[in-house]
Amino acid sequence: MTRFFAIIMLALALGAPGTTMALEAEQEASPESPEIAPIGGLSFRDEIELTVVNVIAYVTDKKGHPITDLTKDDFRLLHDGKAREISHFKLYTQEVFNSRLEAPVEPDPPPTSADAETQPQPDEEPVYIVLFIDHENLHPLDRNRVLARANEFVRENLHPPVQMMVATFEKSLKIIQPFTDERELILQSLRAQRMKTGGRISRDQDRKRILDKMRRYKQDAGASQVNEARTLWGQIIGAAEEEATNLMFTLHSLRATVSMMAGLPGKKSIVYISNGLPMVAGMELVYAYSNTFNDPSMMTQMSRWDQSRNFQALTSAANSQDVTFYTIGAGGLKHGSVATAEYAGPQDNVAVGVGQENFLDSLRFMASNTGGQAIVNTNDFSKAFDRISTDLFTYYSLGYALNVTGGDKVHRIKIELPGHPEYDLRYRRRFVEKSLETQVQDKVMTSLLFPVEENPLDIKVKAGAPAPASKHRWTLPIQVTFPLKQLALLPEGEDYVGRAVLFVAARDSEGGQSDLVRQQHEVRIAATDYAKLEHEKWMISASLLMESGSYTVSVGLMDQVTRQASFAQLKTFIEEAAE
Fold it and tell me: CATH assignment of 130-376?
């Protein structure tokens, strides 16, 4: 949960907030003032430039071994149900990456006429991997067993173009180590996780106690069925509600992690480590209750705790940001019929099996819906991480031209291998076309964690002195400035008018994030004053209401006329006042 409130009040110096009216990139001068022409600003973005969508495809045989001898003609690609020509095709392998690492950097030769006729090939893109350790949904012994192999995974794979980050869920999202390519920093962060505990053991024990009560009920013919049923159903409701609440916070933290990665280029993956998440909270308890009291109608109660829509929302968010989930079920192989210390005897095999699959189905769903892999029902985590390693560096990149719509739109993608039914094929089945404004918003959120070095508008951001707003909150003033000449102004009567959109977000040191706030502003000056003002700084003032702590504030400014955007960040600290 965030520790501050994203209440942002904005005002332009020497100007007033404008409406949300969009302007065309070209506008004729007013008939009353034909001598006034558009002025200032940077070059316009080319709206007709070709946009290429690159889809990553993994091809393996039935044993999971990668296939690396296919050509472009082996693939068939459909966009929204219509076949598209694959204009860009490349096979990436570990050898390709190694050769790039070993080869000296040389300047590109000047292009020739022959080069112009060849198809362009995509360069190796950066790779970002988040190691997400969900302590609230992990058994410590299972977690440490997985982390032992994760250390090897880091040692073997953390080299250019790879960067890794360590994040945890401990009732809230925590970024233990931001993205880095320094191996020891990641290994150090993983070692620090080996002694932590969460609430999963307690929740599992509560479920087992309820299951055991139902088992004993079958053996005790003298029990009052009505009283026993009421008591058990109340306990089931409590356990299911607790599971559902915990899941809500877990999925929120995963979506926040996806959001942080939004503006990053290249391949983006989250390796999610847990003992699983309930697709239907309390599913095995309801199933066992229905069997115990011979009441099939109670099975309909599962729908009240069905979490499939929340998982769909998570994977949709991941697909919109090109983030792939690799999910690891840390529990390994389980045998539900074997008695354990928590049980007086063996349990209902079907009920326990239903519960185990309920927690693993969510991991399968997250992975399959984002083009990743679910590693479940295995005790060999070395092979599990090897499969992830293979995906990092061995894949096909299929590119095709997209006629942009200018808005946000979800497209369906389908890839086929018509002549190779013997191979397995994995890929992301959704592509989200993003408007320029959405792309800017993504980069603002990403720069809370990973600075975005784009500043064509030459914006500067600084913070003033915080002022008390209430007992535990402060108002932090910030100022965003930019040279007036960097903003495009169009004639309106006897004035020059420009329109800019400001985006602001903040993140505290514990990982809490504000919502992104958008404000549109109008810059209006008299045409006769432009000559003396064009070299002046124009300022936007904002106020952030925060609690004490350390913060990163991220700002994005977009010129709506030239469609150029700039980004800046600042670090600030608000000290708790003495009592």
Answer: 3.40.50.410
Of the options 2.60.40, 2.40.160, 1.20.1740, 3.90.75, the CATH number for the domain spanning 5-42+456-574: 2.60.40
Measured N-to-C along each axis, helices 140-157 and 183-191 cross at an angle, to the nearest 10 degrees, of: 170
Sequence ranges of the chain with CATH classification 3.40.50.410: 130-376
DSSP for 303-328, please give it. Answer: GGGB-HHHHHHHHHHHHHTTEEEEEE
Give, to the nearest 10 degrees, the angle between helix 308-320 and helix 349-368. 20
Percentages of the chain per state (helix, strand, coil), in multiples of 5:
35, 30, 35
Question: Hunting for tokens 């506008």 — which residue is that?
Answer: 27
As annotated, the residues of the chain forming the CATH 2.60.40 domain(s) are: 5-42+456-574
- Rounded to whole angstroms, the Cα distance separating 163 from 169 reads 20
- 8 A C-beta contact, residue 428 and residue 449: no
List of residues 6+ apart from 362 with CB closer than 8 A = 276, 277, 278, 279, 307, 311
CA distance 397 to 326: 19
C-alpha distances in angstroms, 517 versus 7, 149, 344, 506? 8, 41, 55, 10
Which tens digits make up the pLDDT trace of 72-108?
999 999 999 999 999 999 999 887 776 665 555 455 5
* Cα–Cα distances in angstroms (integers) from residue 553 to residues 424, 470, 579, in the given order: 45, 21, 27
- Maximum separation of any 2 CA atoms in the chain, in Å: 99
User: Which among 8, 1, 93, 3 has a CA at the least distance from the CA of 516?
Assistant: 8
SS3 sequence of 432-494: EECCHHHHHHHHHHHCCCCCCCCCCCCCEEEECCCEECCCCCEEEEEEEEEEHHHCCEEEECC
For residue 234, the cross-strand partners are none
For 241-264, letters b (16+ CB in 10 Å) and e give: ebbbebbeebbbbbbbbbbbbbbb
d(CA 138, CA 132) in angstroms, rounded, equals: 12
For residue 268, the cross-strand partners are: 128, 323
Give yes or no for a contact between 84 and 148, defined as CB atoms under 8 angstroms apart: no
Could you report the per-residue pLDDT of 192-244, keeping only the tens digit for each? 999 898 889 999 998 889 888 888 877 765 455 667 788 889 999 999 999 99
For 361, list phi and psi in degrees, rounded to 5: -60, -35
Q: Tokens for 11? A: 């005002």
**Considering Cα of 439, then 440, then 445, then 451, what sign does the dihedral take?**
positive
Question: Which residue ranges in the chain fall short of pLDDT 70?
Answer: 1-37, 42-50, 98-124, 220-226, 334-349, 577-579
Question: What does the pLDDT read at residue 106?
Answer: 52
Q: Residue 431 belongs to what H/E stretch?
A: strand 430-433
Report which of 572, 546, 557 is spatially closest to residue 8, judged by C-alpha positions: 546
Token couple for 8: 């942002």
Residue 46, helix vs strand vs coil: coil
Distance, in Å, from the CA atom of 455 to the CA atom of 531, rounded to the nearest integer, reads 24
